[in-house]
Amino acid sequence: MEDDLLMSFLSVTGETDPESAQHYLEAANFDLQTAVELFFSNQHQPSSRSSATTTKTTSDEIRSPIPQQASRLYDSFQHQHDYQGFGSSNYNYPSYMQNFNSYNQRGQNQQFQSASRLTNSGDEFSEMFKKPEIVFKGTFEEAKQTAEMEGKWLIVEIQKDDVFDCHRMNRDTWGNELVQAVLSPFFILWQADEGTNQATFFKGRYQVFSYPFVCVIDPRTGENVKTWAGKFIDASTMVDSLQNFVDSHSLLDHLPSPSPSTLHAPNPFEHVQIPTVSSQNRPINTETMDDEDEQLRAAIQASIEEATKMNTSADEDVQIIENPSQTTTSNTTTQQPTSQPIVEPADKKINVSDYLTEQGDTTRIQIRFPDGKREVIKILKNAPLAAIYAVCRQKLQGSSITSFVVTYLDKTQKQKNVDNTLDRTLNDEGLSGVALSVVQE
């Protein structure tokens, strides 16, 4: 289908470059009429081009002039009418003259409509590839300061107007809803066009070698941490790249070192006194002992005296068990904990189809599973958090994973767990348009 459109475009426009024709078709979403109009609206050919090419002949090829002829466009029927009625409104022209006038007027109308369509197509082209609203409005230094203040990375893109991939980045990548959802918490996007003062200022500090040029800048140091250059990056690839970057880089890497006072913190049990064993026959005062050996001997002596007193007491009820196995059984029976009731996970009560819908106030969420696969779901914003677990459990059916936890990165780039509960919703936790990860327990 695309090859047929390409051949039709080349035959209609006379374009000889298939790659250029492919760009026009992609810009028009493979609508042939719109692509042709875009092609002619961007052509700047002088009016004398055709005449110059047709008259470029050698002197040997000049033929003799066409003999002069005299002829009339209509017959003598008109002369039979009196001139006094020629200018009146009720004068009836011959039918062929009326047809000629109608054809001329129709041609003028078509020319006007064609020019109007070309103007509208140019406006639609600009609207289609305009810069997204997420782009930071300001200078490079202002964007860098804002990123540092908000604790975010700075993404810089230098675009060139005659490189079509730069326009595609605006429409297909930065304008993508999921890409914007990944950008918002962790990045600030700043763009500059080649030839502007801001682009020249940036190129004076960093090496820009091809377009579109995209890089990630550390706002604290100004270091270029990662670069993509010279090729179009689709939305899914950009989402994966940004998520991997966030997983492996953090603006919280340079934390203050612990002070010497925290390294040698006092022992909280330093002033706790150890109780001593006392005896009625021989009271022991640990405060008068000089070393640990005396305390140990006193404690052993007191324990022996206490045990002797318990064995010789007449009113003490002592049960003697001669079989050691009975003792073990008795102790085991006594210490066995009572069984706890099994609590069913909250996601077991969720019907997934109630929340995965195209209707209502929904949001897109990307889920990354333990095997590395990613899937984007569209779910209601008022869905309980347990609905996320229900969706993940449904996707993991047939695998060996039975116990898992769902995590995400908050705005401070700390990993947090999503609670498996029915009491809170995605809106309550601010989980609109985020990327989640399933971690096996």
TrEMBL record:
Q: Where is this region: Disordered?
A: 41-68
Q: Superkingdom of this entry's organism? A: Eukaryota
What would be an example GO MF term here? ubiquitin binding
GO CC annotation terms, alphabetical: nucleus
Q: Which SUPFAM superfamilies match?
A: Thioredoxin-like, UBA-like, Ubiquitin-like
Q: Low complexity compositional bias: what residue ranges?
A: 47-57
Spell out the Gene3D superfamilies in the cross-references: DNA helicase RuvA subunit, C-terminal domain, Glutaredoxin, Phosphatidylinositol 3-kinase Catalytic Subunit, Chain A, domain 1
Domain UBX: from-to ranges: 358-439
Tell me, which GO biological process terms does this entry list?
proteasome-mediated ubiquitin-dependent protein catabolic process
Q: Which protein is depicted?
A: UBX domain-containing protein
Which species does this protein come from?
Naegleria lovaniensis (Amoeba)
